[in-house]
Amino acid sequence: METSQDASRTSGQRRWWALVGFAAAVFVAAAIGGLGVQGTTGEYASLQQPSWAPPSWLFGPVWSLLYALIAVAAWLVWQRVGFGPALWAWTAQLVLNAIWTPLFFGAGQYGLAFAEIVVMWLAIGLTVVLFARVSRVAAALLLPYWAWVTFAAALNLSIWQLNS
pLDDT tens digit string along 137-164? Predict the structure, then answer.
């Protein structure tokens, strides 16, 4: 049964402004990450990398798509249940996402960045589980992100080992 609070959350302009808000939150996380990589292209290229490391130009398009999926997933959950435990988990993983890039690229702390990405991976997993209880579609939208972070964690670990 839909309550008046549910109806006001999912009706009209408020619904679309919420999508803009989730997109803005994701944009802020991406911008923090972007600041963490400014001027580091040469440094990244000079690192010993595994043979399976993707070219650096691939990261921008992949992250753009993933950030869009992350925002839409949160919006879908918000429409169903508002801001509760699932979206708190989403917020935590997004903060961890924003922290990783400056740790890895800006500070060159590959070991600390690996520890942080493991915590982020767990937070994404928790978010997927909590989202699945609300919306299977929202949870599914996070699966490419979780897969990419799994790959990024393996790459982070490999770079850390190769450059220690």
Answer: 999 999 999 999 999 999 999 999 999 8
Number of independent structural domains in the chain: 1
Q: Provide the CA 21 distance to its chain's centre, in angstroms.
A: 16
Burial zone of 40 (CB within 10 Å; 0-12 exposed, 13-18 middle, 19+ buried) = middle
pLDDT in tens, 36-94: 666 666 777 888 999 999 988 888 899 999 999 999 999 999 999 898 999 999 999 99
Q: Which domain holds residue 75?
A: 4-162
CATH number of the domain bearing residue 60: 1.20.1260.100
Rounded CA separation 114/120 (Å): 10
**SS3 at position 55:** coil
Structure tokens at 61: 């398009």
Distance CA 123, CA 147 (A): 13
Q: Is residue 138 exposed (0-12), middle (13-18) or buried (19+ Cβ within 10 Å)? A: buried
The C-alpha atoms of residue 73 and residue 77 are separated, in whole angstroms, by 6
